[in-house]
Amino acid sequence: MTTYLILPPDLDLCRAWGELRAERQAIGQTIDAQDAWIAVTALHYALPLVTHNASHFQDIPGLDVRTVAAS
Known about the structure:
Layout: H1 11-26, H2 33-44, E1 49-51, E2 65-67
Parallel strand pairs: 1-2
Helix pairs in contact: 1-2
């Protein structure tokens, strides 16, 4: 059996999502809505973000991005 932890959004997380999208757009480095949710959730809960697409999350202050080599 696989266990998952569900991290529900709250008002602070929603605000952070909007702020990240606006900040990225202002500097000409837009971020997809889904990637923004992933990034702000990792930041909000102080978790590392593990991805094969590290370039999607480049230059986001405070974000701990980790990649795993494909086998």
